[in-house]
Design goal:
The complex is a heterodimer of chains A (403) and B (295). Chain A has two domains: 113 residues, D-Maltodextrin-Binding Protein, domain 2 (3-Layer(aba) Sandwich), CATH 3.40.190; 227 residues, no CATH class. Chain A contains 15 helices and four strands. The two termini of chain A are 27 Å apart. Helix content of chain B is 34%, strand content 30%. In chain B, the strands form three sheets. Chain B has a six-stranded mixed β-sheet with strand order 6-7-8-3-9-10, with helices on both faces. Chain B is elongated and about 75 Å long. In chain B, 38% of the residues are buried. Classes of the chains: A mainly alpha (403), B alpha/beta (295). Chains A and B meet through helix 1 and helix 8 of A and helix 2, strand 6 and helix 3 of B.
Chain lengths: 403, 295
């Protein structure tokens, strides 16, 4: 029988058994719900009208509040529910208004159209109403000036609330750097989560086979590398499936809720993400698999996995740095270290900040590292699998497989 | 034919195997005996390449054992191991496919073995919910599912009740009769004596006794003597040249003596001491051989 077929048998078992386990089904369902919720929720919460109550003392407050409300709703879609409503409540004197504010009935107080009182300037809601009132006051003042020069007030408001300059980008109508950066960032987050999540599947899958000793039966008919490669392929495919499903759910939720415009992506950006997603996953899966073969008990598994998780965290932070400074030394160094490259390179590439030769070299180095690691990990795996009990030292595993 | 040829393996200062040589033909069943830590498990693992010997080699029909060849072998390790969360039938059928069977063939064979072990109604149960004895049956089925040419079983009888022991022995006998080569290790010497034509005894990594059980017993330099005697033995036993072992209980005495002893003379002397109520003189039991060999 061909050795690859054996590998696929192993991969198939991983997919079937993992795929129908309760743990997998529940986490998948929860992830889908969570993602859909995260996408839809801001739309639901953000929708509707935010109401502010403004206390008015003296004269000249109405036009300011009216203008502020108009400005606050200027960017609303036509026919949509207005997003801001400002209500004016008149008070006899300043003290009465301030007392009402202390009770929390008022968001701001306008005095004679010249002074505005808010509780504090740091607060989130306060600054929103404050800036609306300031803009409203400015437009009322402007209106007074232009009315004297005979122009319609509404025109002024129109001019103030629209973009006077037409925007064109050199790269044409495709996604700009900003969207590509955002996509790279999202891809980075996904990769980071995938590495940790599926790496841990690898780890526990390998340790499980060791802890329940089924590995000796398996190794009596298959080779360690087939077992390792089969597990990586199976868990990898299942993981990619789960991930693709999650992303699909997110996209559908985005479409349905219409919260954010979906960025249009060019093929290169997507290909870039997929290539590095696979490279990153393989690299870490091989390492996690080798680590799992060193311990016989689940309790010990997390300890041997700790260095790997640290590497992933480090890679993540380097690439966050690369997002803000894609040509900086951290980004360049991270490009050439295979453990961090899967995090750093896609970010730099998405931002268009990586020379072709660096990209190519990074791919070569990472693929080389994966091949090398498969050899090293395969040997550690072979040496570690049949040594039960205490945690196997790396050196001992290496040696015992060699003899 | 399986042959282990002059295997040596050291772990640090411990010699696990120190010149281990034995062979098993198709259609023969070999009991592989030895005290704890003598190297039984290590020797069995070398057959599957799970342990690589420092020197020596293992062959099947005179050829080195390849991966394809190994897929025609069945193994039941001492440390039992199956996927606890996998259904019994899925597990067996998976192991069948892993060793080269077509999916349909593997599934049919899995069902056949479950039925043979009386587990047909448990086929969809996860292994972890089965009793210890039933898990052991599934484990044996896992070694048999792909109809291997060679069966290597490490302590297949340990932990089995008498009924399960009988079933297991029956199945091993059937498989041997069907032309498989069977090797199993055990500490139950009486059982091995009952069901095996051949034994190999390993001590400190070396095979010290090997061959056909009956011939070994005949050729043994010792005999088993049981004597029940009225009256005091006195210095009766001291007249024997080479007594290996004496066990006495009231009037009954069990002795392991040299095969060349003049037994008629001894019986005559015993009758002078008192009335001989019981006297048997036989070839040694496998237990006697074993103790003699590893002492």
């Amino acid at each position: 029988m061909s050795q690859l077929r054996t590998m696929w048998q192993i991969a198939g078992r991983e997919i079937r058994e993992h795929g129908r386990s309760k743990a997998f089904l529940i986490t998948t369902a929860l992830t889908f719900l969570l993602v859909a919720g995260l996408v839809v929720a801001p739309g639901l919460i953000g929708g509707g009208t935010t109401e502010y109550v403004v206390g008015g003392v003296g004269e000249g407050n109405e036009p300011i509040v009216a203008a502020a409300e108009l400005l606050g709703n200027a960017s609303d879609e036509p026919d949509a529910e207005s997003s801001v409503s400002l209500k004016l409540e008149t008070f006899d004197d300043r003290e009465a208004a301030e007392a009402a504010m202390e009770l929390g009935d008022l968001d701001a107080i306008l005095i004679d159209g010249r002074e505005v009182v808010v509780e504090s300037v740091g607060g989130f809601g306060d600054s929103a109403v404050l800036s609306l009132l300031q803009q409203g006051a400015a437009s009322v003042e402007l209106e007074a000036i232009v009315t004297e020069s005979g122009q319609a007030a509404a025109d002024v408001i129109d001019v103030m609330t629209s973009d006077p300059l037409e925007t064109t980008t050199l790269s044409g109508p495709e996604a700009g750097d900003e969207t590509r950066g955002a996509v790279a960032y999202a891809g980075l987050l996904l990769l980071y989560m995938a590495v940790l999540l599926y790496g841990n599947w690898m780890l526990s899958g390998v340790t499980e086979e060791k802890s329940n000793r089924v590995v000796e039966v398996l190794l009596s008919s298959v080779k360690p590398w087939q077992l390792l490669a089969g597990k990586i392929s199976g868990i990898g495919l299942l993981g990619i499936g789960q991930f693709a499903g999650t992303i699909l759910v997110a996209i559908i939720a985005l479409r349905v809720s219409n919260v954010v415009e979906l960025p249009t992506l060019d093929v290169a950006t997507v290909a870039n993400l997929i290539v590095w997603f696979i490279l990153g996953f393989l690299l870490f899966a091989v390492m996690y698999g080798a680590a799992g073969s060193l311990v016989s008990r689940m309790e010990d598994a997390q300890n041997v996995a700790f260095p790997m998780s640290m590497i992933a965290v480090a890679g993540f932070f380097v690439s966050i740095a690369a997002l803000s400074d894609p040509d900086g030394p951290a980004a360049v160094v991270g490009t050439f270290i295979p453990m961090t490259a899967p995090f750093v390179v896609p970010v730099r590439a998405a931002l268009g900040a990586i020379p072709g030769w660096q990209y190519l070299l990074a791919v070569i180095l990472t693929v080389g590292a994966i091949v090398g690691l498969v050899f090293v990990a395969g040997r550690i795996y072979a040496g570690g699998l049949l040594r039960f009990g205490t945690r196997v030292k790396l050196r001992d595993a290496w040696r015992s497989a060699g003899t | 034919m399986l042959a282990l040829i002059d295997l040596h393996k050291r772990y640090g200062n411990v010699a696990a195997l120190a010149g281990c040589t034995f062979q098993v033909d198709r259609g023969r069943m070999l009991g592989f005996l030895g005290p704890n830590g003598a190297g039984k498990t290590t020797a069995m693992r070398t057959i599957f390449g799970l342990v690589t010997p420092d020197s020596g080699h293992v062959t099947w029909d005179g050829e080195p054992i390849t991966t394809d060849r190994k897929q025609r072998f069945g193994y039941m390790p001492e440390q039992r191991g199956l996927y606890p969360k996998m259904r019994a039938h899925d597990q067996l059928s998976y192991l069948g496919r892993l060793r080269g069977m077509e999916p349909r063939q593997a599934a049919a064979s899995a069902d056949r073995w479950l039925e043979r072990f009386g587990l047909a109604d448990r086929r969809l149960d996860r292994v972890e919910v089965l009793s210890h004895g039933n898990q052991q049956r599934v484990q044996l089925a896992a070694a048999l599912v792909h109809d291997p040419d060679l069966l290597v079983l490490d302590e297949p009888f340990s932990g089995l009740d008498p009924l399960a022991t009988e079933t297991m022995a029956d199945i091993l006998g059937e498989e041997t009769a069907r032309g498989k080569a069977v090797v199993f290790s055990s500490h139950q010497l009486d059982l091995v004596e009952d069901i095996c034509e051949e034994v190999a005894i390993i001590n400190a990594g070396q095979i010290v006794v090997e061959g056909d059980v009956r011939r070994l017993k005949d050729a043994a330099p010792i005999r088993h003597l049981e004597l029940e005697l009225d009256g005091e033995v006195g210095d009766l036993f001291e007249t024997l040249d080479d007594v290996r072992q004496i066990r006495s209980e009231d009037h009954g005495h069990t002795l392991i003596i040299d095969a060349n002893t003049d037994i008629r003379g001894f019986l005559a002397r015993a009758q002078e001491v008192g009335r001989v109520r019981h006297f048997t003189y036989t070839t040694p039991s496998l237990s006697d051989l074993f103790l003699e060999a590893v002492r």
